[in-house]
Amino acid sequence: MQSTTAPTTDKRAALKDAIAAERRELADLFDALRADDWHAPSLCTGWTVREVVAHMSMGFRLSLPATLGELLRARGNLHRMTDRVARRDAAAHSTTELSDFLRDHAHHPRTPPVGGLPAALGHDVVHGLDVTAALGLDRHVPEDRLRILLDAIQPRGLKFFGVDLTGVRLCAEDTDWSYGSGADPVYGAAQDLLLLAFGRRLPPGRLRGEAAGRFTGR
């Protein structure tokens, strides 16, 4: 879902700073979670909060050979591999360790295979929202970070995440952003619309409009 245009040196520096800030802020937030919050379901289907947080640091902790080995064990299925590793690591590490992995690797240069730095920011922001939106926490992602991700939404990314916006226009209520040309507007906070674009189904009441029901429900 990210732009293929290479960012300039200044933009790269700003992106790295944004990624580091997001990781540190989320680590602090995770440190403050209650014990039962860690076992609550997230917006990632089938994963608890603990498994989402474990997954967020997988790329920092696994070397390339180890990652390839895990992928071989999963017979080349990336989703099966990430699911197995997240469950294993969530069980193997304390909640404090899982938070510290993010904090200690705030400036880790790892990026996803596709999308570069914007995709790395998207990974952290969206998984953070998988936790906070599911738990009903009032955490607002800074607008400059959201802008980077919202402005990078593309049809191929929507298709990858299984999002069908036929006839729908997304309209942010808290910033001047919209996407799509459909006749049916779906209104919501910018960060909730970002979750929608990444294929998440949101808790009821977070979106408005006649077509909102297509994107809500757990």
Task: Give a quick precis of the structure.
The chain has 218 residues and is α+β, with helices and mostly antiparallel strands. It has helices at residues 9-31, 49-56, 58-61, 64-73, 78-92, 95-104, 116-135, 143-150, 155-160, 190-197, and strands at residues 168-172, 178-179, 184-188, 207-208.
Secondary-structure map with pairings?
Blueprint (H helix, E strand, L loop, with lengths): L8 H23 L17 H8 L1 H4 L2 H10 L4 H15 L2 H10 L11 H20 L7 H8 L4 H6 L7 E5 L5 E2 L4 E5 L1 H8 L9 E2 L10
Parallel strand pairs: 1-3
Antiparallel strand pairs: 1-2, 3-4
Helix pairs in contact: 1-6, 1-7, 2-5, 2-6, 2-7, 7-8, 7-10
Average pLDDT reading = 92
CATH architecture of the largest domain: Up-down Bundle
Number of separate strands: 4
The major pleated sheet works out as: 4 strands, mixed
Shape: globular
How much of the polypeptide forms β-strand, as a percent range?
5-15%
Uncertain regions spanning at least 5 consecutive residues:
none
- The helix count comes to 10
SS-based class: alpha+beta
- The arrangement of helices and strands along the chain is HHHHHHHHHEEEHE
Q: Could you please say which CATH topology of the largest domain applies here? A: Four Helix Bundle (Hemerythrin (Met), subunit A)
Q: Tell me the distance between the termini.
A: 23 Å
The radius of gyration is 17 Å
Total domain units: 2
* Main sheet strand line-up: 2-1-3-4
**What percent of residues adopt helix (DSSP H or I)?**
40-55%
CATH C-level class of the largest domain? Mainly Alpha
Q: What do you see in this structure?
A:
This protein is an alpha+beta fold and 218 residues long. It has two domains: 1-152, Four Helix Bundle (Hemerythrin (Met), subunit A); 153-218, Nonspecific Lipid-transfer Protein, Chain A, CATH 3.30.1050. Helices cover 51% and strands 6% of the residues. It has helices spanning 9-31, 49-56, 58-61, 64-73, 78-92, 95-104, 116-135, 143-150, 155-160, 190-197; strands at 168-172, 178-179, 184-188, 207-208. Strands 2-1-3-4 form a four-stranded mixed sheet. Helix 7 packs across helix 10 (190-197). The radius of gyration is 17 Å and the shape is globular. The mean pLDDT is 92.
